[in-house]
Amino acid sequence: MSSCGNPNAEADALMTRRPKYDRSKACVKCKSKTGNIVIRHAVYCKDCFFPLISLRFRRTLEPHVNPTLDLHRRKGLKASGNLLIGFSGGLGSTVLLDLVQKTYLAPRERQDGDQNPNGGCPWPKVVVAHIDTSSVLTEVQGESCRIRGVVESYGAVFEYLPLRLEDAFDQKWWRSVGGPDFVHPTGLDIINEDMFLKLLSSNRTSPSSALNAYIASLPTQTAVASGIQALVRVLLLYTAVSTHASHLLLGTSLTSLSISLISSISQGGGYSIKEEAQEEWSDNNEDGTDRTVRLVRPLREVGTKECTLWAWWNDLTVIGKHRYSGGRQDISALTRDFIVGLEKDYPSTVSAIARTCNKLTTKESTNTKCLFCERPVQSGIQEWKHKISIRSYRDLGPDIMSPPHMNLEGGSSGDSRPTHTGPVASNLCYACHTTWTSRSIRGNAASQNDIPIPVWVASRSDHHNDLRNGRKVEENDLQYLIKDFLLDSGS
Amino acid sequence: MSSDNLSLKIEFGGGLELLFSKQRSHNITIPAIVRKDDSTSSLPQENDVETKPADITYLIHHLRDHLLKERPELFIENKTVRPGILVLVNDTDWELEGEGDYQLKNGDEIVFISTLHGG
Fold it and tell me: At which residues is the cross-link Glycyl lysine isopeptide (Gly-Lys) (interchain with K-? in acceptor proteins) found (chain B) (predicted)?
């Protein structure tokens, strides 16, 4: 067959279709059975598929179980706290739950590559948390009961912990996870590119309506999607701390990770690309102690295809099918369409995205955490943004003189600033700031006020207000506020 | 069962069943010889129509025309299944069986699973 002719003129001129697998149909592992699945050009039979996925899961997770890497080599696996699993009911988290149960909670025989010679579960307790997002995503309504059923189908090995997305605006929940009390109800004002926290006269809004107001104030579809994602992540991190968990596991597959990496970079999250795959998050507790949670994505070497077949062949119930509805136009959904299409013809490229991003690192580290998403804030990012952005004179501060032909009525729009507690833009990461201040496709300027803020933002701003207003600060509070500037006692 | 027809078991998973009467399993019968252009209308008596043995590409068109209840764009794209839909032929990845060119046999079990649900 010719491979370089004109297909319109010659019937046989089309190039020969390249098979999706490298050599033969025999399994590349056992080399005896006929294969059942092609994973990035390699053929595996069904019998070899299950140990392969199990091995990839353990190989990704187990080096991060012990507090330090060398401990793991000598003494087997022993975590310093409990385990929290974030369970959405979707494909990845369903497979993750099954793998955790089969690997650590069910009696089994030793397997090849087993890095836990002592056997048993490295965590004293395994808690499964599900965040009910039905107050903002109508398509997931009624799923919570079914999700509880899935968790309980494993028996008493998992403790089920239901949460709601609106807990992010609920002081009761904040107190229940050990968050410091805050007395001043605070809202967010977006005047221009500066964003201000503002003391509100009362805080009578219910968590549910505060959540809806928060979501409604986000300027774009992309901002809504990433805003919900950030709320879910931070809720899980604080819940992990409150359940004394040393590890938080999420069911992000290789495909999902590649999607979130590309999507995050395109939304300005390049500085925290490392955290997109894995992060060490510390809760700066009131008493000055840090409680660290290690967020691991143990399926980050397992693609969606493998997850799908694991779920199908193990007859697992996958509840979260809402993404199937399609039609969303935010960056995350468009990236998903692109990556899924890419994976069909070029499956190795998707893993190359994750592997390439894994090699990236930032030039300098930072101790500043974003008020909203609690990821690192690059120092000097606002100054840089001011230099490279095309901005309106209305976005400039009052000390910047506008040219005479610009007759701005009332000068700068920051007239109401005296009621504000202070700008927060410098405490936001580039991605969160861009999310809040980007203009919608209709060109609307994002000017809004009294936007409810999550409890962790309000709590941190409350501390700063107390300091600013001259209130006597308790010794523990003071230690919390100046902790970044203290030298280690050992140094 | 006539030798002119093939009896197949079709299963849908991962949310795809929602497009097919919310029914996971279907038993269907399709002609063994079909039009080469994958049109699912019956073959005329004359012999001037190009034909081929029924393959998965034809099956996809048949399912769209006879079983699918809503939103065909979520199932079929460019004469094949939409990216993100995994196909198993008798419990084996269709990529090992020639994908759409796999010639169907009587009693085959074909599974379509969507991988596009949440994580």
Answer: 119
Q: Do residues A190 and A451 make contact, with C-beta atoms less than 8 angstroms apart?
A: yes
d(C-alpha B75, C-alpha B15), whole Å? 11
Q: Where are the domains of chain B?
A: 5-114
Pairing assessment for the beta strands B5-13 and B25-31 based on DSSP bridges:
antiparallel
pLDDT in tens, A376-428: 988 877 777 777 776 666 666 555 666 666 655 544 444 444 455 567 788 88
Distance between B8 CA and the closest CA of chain A, angstroms: 19
Q: Around Cβ A146, how many Cβ atoms within 10 Å?
A: 12
CATH of A49-182+210-358, one of 3.40.50.620, 3.40.30.10, 3.90.79.10, 3.90.230.10: 3.40.50.620
Digit-coded pLDDT (tens) for A104-123: 998 665 555 555 554 688 99
Given CB atoms, is A251 within the 8 Å cutoff of chain B? yes
Question: What residues of chain A lie within 8 A of the CB of B111, using their CB?
Answer: 312
Cα(A242)–Cα(A235) distance, integer angstroms = 11
- The C-alpha torsion from A85 through A88 and A90 to A94, rounded to 10°, is 30
Name the architecture of domain B5-114: Roll (3.10)
Q: Which value does ipTM take for this structure?
A: 0.91
Selected for mutation to probe chain B from A16, A91, A139, A316 (highest B CB count within 10 Å) is A91
A197 CB-side CA count, 13 A: 24
Q: Which candidate from A20, A34, A252 shows the least CB-CB separation from B119? A: A252
Candidate from B74, B95, B111 with C-beta closest to A38: B95
B113 touches chain A (CB under 8 A): yes
Cβ <8 Å between B119 and A318: no
Out of A35, A251, A305, whose CB is closest to B115? Answer: A305
Q: B95 contacts in A (CB within 8 Å)?
A: 19-21, 38
Residues 6 or more apart whose Cβ sits within 8 Å of residue A209: none
Q: pTM to 2 decimals?
A: 0.85
State the pLDDT confidence band at A181, using cuts at 50, 70 and 90. Answer: confident
Q: How many CB pairs under 8 A join A and B?
A: 97
